[in-house]
Amino acid sequence: MKYCFGVDIGGTSVKIGLFCEDGRVIDKWEIKTRTEKEGVNILPDIAASLKKKMEEKKMQKEEIVGIGMGVPAPITEEGIVNGTANLGWGYKNVKEEMEQLTGIYTATGNDANVAALGEMWLGGGRGHKNMIMVTLGTGVGGGIIINGKILTGEHGAGGEIGHLCVNYDEKEQCGCGSFGCLEQYASATGITRLAKKKLAETSEKTILRNGPVNAKTVFDAVKEGDAVAKDIAAEFGRYLGYALANLAVATDPAVFVIGGGVSKAGKVLLPFVEKPYKERAFFANANTEFALAELGNDAGICGAAKLVLG
Amino acid sequence: MKYCFGVDIGGTSVKIGLFCEDGRVIDKWEIKTRTEKEGVNILPDIAASLKKKMEEKKMQKEEIVGIGMGVPAPITEEGIVNGTANLGWGYKNVKEEMEQLTGIYTATGNDANVAALGEMWLGGGRGHKNMIMVTLGTGVGGGIIINGKILTGEHGAGGEIGHLCVNYDEKEQCGCGSFGCLEQYASATGITRLAKKKLAETSEKTILRNGPVNAKTVFDAVKEGDAVAKDIAAEFGRYLGYALANLAVATDPAVFVIGGGVSKAGKVLLPFVEKPYKERAFFANANTEFALAELGNDAGICGAAKLVLG
């Protein structure tokens, strides 16, 4: 039996998993992400943690297929980042540095893309090789898997689908500087924005007026049959469904996997997205499946492991 | 020196090229596409033509790396079509049938995707491995190349970018049944439509009122400095540029290559697309290059050859 490490670097902690080749997780732990001094300690800290684990488990280097790493920044096929928002890194050859620190083959990817790969391998996209994952969190992230491989793109910015323009008439600006990005409607913050607008426009009765308004309370109200909440969910779903129809005509996936905090609403969410998707899908893509993500916070370490298992 | 064949199957003729491994074309010819009887003769006719050429050139099977084929239909990674608009074929395993007929390794792809691969190898996308080709003809076709390989997708329908929705308010229907597809604005027919609308709306003086109105006369008038023609070109460019910005955020190409009949207008066309592209592009994709296709009708046989040269 051979093993590998899946490493998911975040801005506050690094999640690490030790996997068997067949996908079983043997061990899982976290270390702190030391971002001070331009993040100079991050990779050495990870290398030390992996070394310690190998000693603990009495594993030889030869038993380790490789180290897969998800990085919260655009990262090229060659493992190079040109700056990060949360880690302090400027230019860094992550792959080369990690291989020098450990003497073990290392593969890298963007964290959202790597999470998508994880969901394809062991989660909501299981059994498929062409998949789009949409992560509905504070923002909207994504990952596109083509023929079992991450679509990395020229600058490591493939799958940044939160910034698809879905409304050319939008007057409010997105965090990226543009207007009408999917993220402005389909993220947790976006849904809250749609909800507040709707509540200001209508005098209809709704349980949403009784407490805090956010993505969770909107979908909770949908489950109660609240008509205003359903209208808000329909608007969210129209933006997301139309965007996915445009992605499908370009990349022709077998399945869409929807994850992130918003997806915790559960299966109730899917028809709100599927219906407008089908209205706008090109005929060749009309029957693309929809699924919920299944791995939660473990998607990153799973996908990172899959990077080296191939 | 080894050789390969590049075959581009069209509805009326099959273009065939004999290539050296290094990309040089040694010979180039056409045969008729016999679509009658559900197209049963098409592949045997091609196989016979290749055999004849090998005898003429005194080539042995062992000297042929393979046969690459572009097919005018969605075709899976495995070489299977499930129906064609122009060839008469229903379900057909093109790869398997061709290998049985010739005893030579065969690789297949959709014709628009294969033409994109050709432009990457020897044309407007030379030197790049991440590319989107847009073919502006009677319709709008396309091909997406990721890491040097065609993005085929689950149903062989990857890169069908003519059916990206770019206008959710459109009332006229696209040939595909949907509304607001890129093809309705950026194809030769689409540009004619935009031009006729514009001429009906404005009383401004324009040389376009002196003769036939079509994509060619519009761009000819642009070259003469005609203000109305420039407005029409700007509208065309806005739809196309915005669509490419959305494609870039998903697939992060190094270069867009613009081909097809409309692109014969030449370099005058590019700024009309680049300007709105830059207005809408995600920052990571803002500097993606624009180029014109260079291979014309030979893009198909070149890309087909590249399919087997890898």
UniProtKB/TrEMBL annotation, chains A, B:
Its EC number is 2.7.1.2. Keywords: ATP-binding, Kinase, Nucleotide-binding, Transferase. PROSITE patterns: ROK. It holds the Pfam family ROK. The keyword Membrane does not apply. One of its GO terms (molecular function) is glucokinase activity. InterPro entries: ATPase_NBD (IPR043129), ROK (IPR000600), ROK_cs (IPR049874), ROK_glcA (IPR004654). PANTHER family: BIFUNCTIONAL UDP-N-ACETYLGLUCOSAMINE 2-EPIMERASE_N-ACETYLMANNOSAMINE KINASE (PTHR18964:SF149), ROK (REPRESSOR, ORF, KINASE) FAMILY (PTHR18964). Belongs to the ROK (NagC/XylR) family. This is Glucokinase.
